[in-house]
Structures are given as structure tokens and as C-alpha cells.
Amino acid sequence: MKKILVVExxxxxxxxxxxxxxxxxxxxxxxxEAVNGMKAIELLEEYKDIALVxxxxxxxxxxxxxxxxxxxxxxxxxxxxILTAFENFDYAREAFRYNVKDYIVKPIYKENLLPPxxxxxxxxxxxSRNQEKIKNYYQxxxxxxxxxxxxxxxxxxxxxxxxxxxxxHQEEKFCIVVMQEEELVTDVELVNRIIQEKYRGFIKxxxxxKINEEYVMLLSGIECMxxxxxxxxxVKSMLSYFCTCKHMNITMGVGLVYSSKxxxxxxxxxxxxxxxxxxxxxxxxxxxxxxxxxxxxxxxKEEEIKLESIVRTRKEKEINQVIHSILEDIIxxxxxxxxxxxxxxxxxxxxxxxxxELYQNEDIxxxxxxxxxxxxxxxxxxxxxxxxxxxxxxxxxxxICSGKENTKKKSKIVEEIVHxxxxxxxxxxxxxxxxxNKYFMNYSYCSRLFSQETGMTFSKYLxxxxxKKAKTLLENKDMKISFIAFEVGYNDVSHFIQSFKKSYGLxxxxxxxxxxxx
Length: 518
Known about the structure:
single chain; alpha/beta; Rossmann fold; Alpha-Beta Plaits; five-stranded parallel β-sheet; Sig_transdc_resp-reg_receiver; phosphoprotein; transcription; DNA-binding transcription factor activity; DNA-binding
């Protein structure tokens, strides 16, 4: 229901206008009457949601033209209709520069009042619908960046949205290319524009994923897709352009060629696997899964025995030296990412087995939590440089060398998770995702560690932080509750209101009203 304010100094004329409006079938409410512009401004302070002001143009103290000027400056969201006599028409025309939507010539009847009122309200509804569409569009555009490829392939509608070309040309052969920048993502729109303008001939589908900060491309539509040299030529031409002309530090991984939609995710995983080779051979290169060595080589027996022995001394420097030597040997020989992967698994296995021995006489649940810390099959793709991987292994060595005393110290991981929440509270954050995909820890262990050090579960901590941010935003009286909910990470406004009231005993509107009084 739209609220209307009527401003007219002639008593009977004003009452007649109000009566016509109230008896109409329009979805409106006359929330106030004023005898001049000054009184109207007072009512506008009381009613913040007035949609339309119908005002006479000539009144004592403040006329309609001055009121229109005030509204144009201070309340531009309010539409205005001007009432005027024939002889004042030229004067009324000046008001159109103040966002006046129409004029109504006196005397006022149902026939000349309701049509312009209806027209203004219909335009407001259309504007509101368009704003909602824009809001939904931007929400969708933001959400699109967080769909995993596996989810996209599993849902037909998502697949048509992200892989529109392949969804139509399912008989054509394709391969997935994944590109990642070394530092922070520079300009997604720029990359998108370059793909559209220069490489649309063979990059048929393209999108950016915020999950891993990666560009996902479907390469198709060229002859001889089975000819690996042609595919390599296309990919390397792109790589060269981005590196040389746009001065971007990137790597590209390329999966195998397939002709079935069901293989899109597999080709994507192969592209990620190929990208791991950058840890060994560096950036600004393209890596092809077809060229990867599939041999699952372990570290040498001599190195294995040496590491097991030095771990038992719990000498941090010496352990790190052995680990560095193992990794350095792989780099120097430019061996495969698979060799690196197996070496990391073996190192973590040795560290984990010894750490479990330290707790063999402890409570069985405690022992379980400690062992799983080292048990996950680590994804090298989360590391951009070999130094990051080595630093992670050093963190595990610190755990080994400090023994049980380490559990009493402030965990660096928990500190990082807290900082991550502060920077990303508005996103869809999951501790499981953070533990397994960002910090490479077992979820159960990470959850227990977080609760021990913060005194609450991760979900409770996240809710409290979001609501704290919401309180700050509520001090801005112009921000809608629905927008605030979205800004702090709630997609469901009713859920936001319930959470806020549960925590503070007031709804967001009640809290805002109380702050205004204070």
C-alpha cells in the first residue's frame, strides 16, 4: 500500500481530494494532510515511507514550488503532483525541473485526479520491479562465482548457464583449460573481454570461479581436436598473449580431450592436476595432463629411513633440512607433480605416525583427533609455490617438536581462521571447506581446536560476528533491512531477523528505533 500526503491550503478542496483518493480502488492510504509546505515537511519527518505528495502550487509560508525544491534535494525518492489553476500553468511548468511528475488543473474531480495518481504509482511499481530484478541479477552474478564445477555438471540448468555452447553442441570434442593468476586476480572483466574478442573461435565457454580464484574455459570448435599439437598451439598462443601483452603472471592446465558431457568434470580435474606441475617448473607456462608422468613414485628408502630417524630427535631445524632436501631434489630433477604429491603424503605419514606415538597412552578420542591431522590426501593445487607447501610442512614439524605443550599455545591456524572470518563474513563460509581446502587440516580436529581456543563453535562465532556487523549497518537509517541481511551473509531475511532477535532481544527495526532515540 502506497502512502500519500495531500498539501492544500483551501480546506474544502483538500477534503475533497482526500475523499476522492480514499474512495478509489487504488491501493493507497492518505497518511496526512497539510495546509502549506512547512507543515508538509513536518509530516514528512514523521512518515518516512511516503511515496507521493499532491500539492497546490500557491500557499502561504511555503508554496508547492518551494516544497518541490525541498523534496528534490532532501527526499528525491518521493514523487510529486502539482495542483494549479489555468492562469498559473506557466508557473507550474517550472516545477518539472524538481522531479514533478504531472500537473492537475483545478477544479479537482475524480476524472482528472485519479488517472495521474494511478500513472505515478504504476511507474513506481515498475521501478521497484526493475530494482528487484537488478538486485537479483547482481546476487546471482555474485553467487555464480561460488559453484564448484562438480555441482555445475550435476545440475542441468546450471550446466546450460555455465557451459551453454557444450550443452547445445554435445557431439563436439572438447577439453577443459584452467588458468590461474600468481597474485591477486587483476581484472576478471578484462580477461573475459579478451577471451570474447580474441579467442572466441576456440574458447566456447568461459567463467571465473571464486572458489579457487581460477578461470575455467572449455576449448572446442576446432578441427583435429585429437591432434595434441594443435590444442597445445592454441593454449600457448593465449598464454603468450596474457603474459607478454598484458604482463600477467599465470599458469594454464589442460585436461584430456573428450566428447561426452559427463567427462567435463574429469577433464577439469585433469587440468588442475596438470597445474600442480608449476610447483616444480614454475609459472608462465602451460601444463598438459597428457604429458604428465603417471608413475606413483615414493621417496627413496634411504630418505625415508633418514626422516623417520631424525623425527624422533624432535630437532626442528634438522627435520626441516631433511624435508627441504627431499623437495629440492624433486625440483632440481624437474620430476612430475605426482612424485611431489607422493613425497608429501609420505612425509606426512612419517610425521603423523610419530606424533601418534606420543599420545598412545592418552584418551582414545584424543589420539584419534591427533592422527587424523596428518591423514588427509593433500591437494597440491591449493599451493601456488613450493615455498608455501614447505612452510605448511614446517607447521607440522613445529607440532611434532613442541609435543603436547603445543596444544596449550595459541594456534596460528585459529588466528588465521578468525582473520579470514573478519575479511569474508559476508560469504558462504564453511569450516569444513576452510579446514580441508585452505588450511589442509582434518575438519574434526580443526573444529575441536577452534572451539577450545575461542570458547564457542565456528558457526556460533560466525553468527555473532555477522550480527555485530549488522548492528553497525543498522545505524544507517537509509539501508533497508533486506539489504543489510544480504550484506552480512544472510540470503533469507526472515532468518536474519530471527537470529538478530535471538541474540539481542530486539528485531533489527526495533534496534534501529532504539538507537535513534539514544
